Amino acid sequence: MNKGLNIIFQSLDADHVLARIIWRERDVGGGCLTLEIPVRNASVAPKPHAELEADARALAVRFARAFADTIEG
Questions:
Q1: What is the DSSP annotation of 10-38?
Q2: Among 11, 26, 51, 62, whose Cα sits 20 to 30 Å from the Cα of 37?
Q3: Contact assessment for residue 11 and residue 41, using Cβ atoms and an 8 Å cutoff
Q4: Is the pTM of this model over 0.70?
């Protein structure tokens, strides 16, 4: 996987999916942060796939900033 953000959705059951958010800092030899967050299935609370991905991306960016602040401070 290349540097950047990758989001994968995996079905858990009829009501939930697992959003796996993977953040890589470098292409080779860098750190990798993976968040796995269960969320309600799109069929229960309909949202377009693009909106789910945008929500997951925003969450990952907020988490990465908070994580960086913790390390630097």
A1: EE-SSSEEEEEEEEES-SSS--EEEEEEE
A2: 26
A3: yes
A4: no
